[in-house]
Amino acid sequence: MNTILFDLDGTLLPMDIEEFTKKYFGLLAQTMSEKNRDGKMILDAILKGTMAMVKNDGSHTNEEVFWKTFVEITKIDQDEIEPEFYEFYENVFDKINSGIQSENMIQAVKILKEKGYRLYLTTNPLFPRIATLKRTQWAGLDPNDFEWITTYENSSFSKPSINYYKEVIEGQHLDVHQCMMVGNDVKEDGAIQTLGVPLFLVEDYMLNHDNLEINCKWKGSSLDFLKFVEELPEVK
User: Fold this and answer.
1) Which residues are paired to 185 by β-bridges?
2) Do 148 and 121 touch, CB atoms closer than 8 A?
3) Most buried residue, 106, 182, 208, 212, by CB count within 10 Å?
4) Other CB atoms within 10 A of residue 29 CB
5) Phi-psi region of 143 (alpha: psi -120 to 50; beta: other; left: phi over 0)
């Protein structure tokens, strides 16, 4: 094993996903309303666009699928409103950063880098790159620590589709026998196990909405994961 695939939200970045979503949508609606946009309609379009990305069949990128849905609902040209989204992520998005970081995960990533492991950030690609990089930095991590980060621009599937993981593994020319996944969502992160990639389930902010049977090779707290990483051999 020489390659570690990491989930972001709730794994590297401590997060109550429901609280984050509520704050995110609230702040975005407020920001758009201040620009004399219909905040309620825009939120509805974002939700439906997100659902479309989750159902993406791979024929288009998630970015293309999102904007097609968004424009159909709002009748607003992408070229007109997209800069306003980027302005939001650049200047306003940081307001919902809780400031909470996991020192255990930060240290684990540092040790893995020092030991020569290849690191990939396989976060659900429902956000644009600018927002994903922001959240990576919220976690106290350098985006440059990762060889590849999945975002809605470079992905054509979403979790928990097994095709999402196939796209990463095939696109990055990875060997499933050399990989492991680190995540907190039993369904979304556990899906990769059907490809033969083992999962370390981080339980600090574990999600199991469907009450699935937990069947993974390793599980434990972020401290347990740090101890696990400390015992890993250096990559030769």
Assistant:
1) 207
2) yes
3) 182
4) 18
5) alpha
Element (H, E) at 147: none
The amino acid occupying position 49 is G
Residues 6+ apart with CB under 8 A from 106: 139, 140, 141
Question: What type of residue sits at position 205?
Answer: Y
Q: CA quadruple 177, 180, 186, 188: dihedral positive or negative?
A: negative
The maximal CA–CA distance of the chain, rounded, in angstroms, is 58
Encoded amino acid at 108, one letter: A
Q: How far apart are CA 134 and CA 33, in angstroms?
A: 23
Say if CB 169 and CB 144 are below 8 A apart: no
Residue type present at position 37: R
pLDDT in tens, the chain (236 residues): 999 999 999 999 999 888 999 999 999 999 999 999 999 999 999 999 999 999 999 999 999 999 999 999 999 999 999 999 999 999 999 999 999 999 999 999 999 999 999 999 999 999 999 999 999 999 999 999 999 999 999 999 999 999 999 999 999 999 999 999 999 999 999 999 999 999 999 999 999 999 999 999 999 999 999 999 999 999 98
Instruction: In whole angstroms, give the CA distance from residue 117 to residue 75.
Output: 47
The 118-121 sheet, strands edge to edge: 148-149, 118-121, 3-6, 179-183, 199-202, 218-220
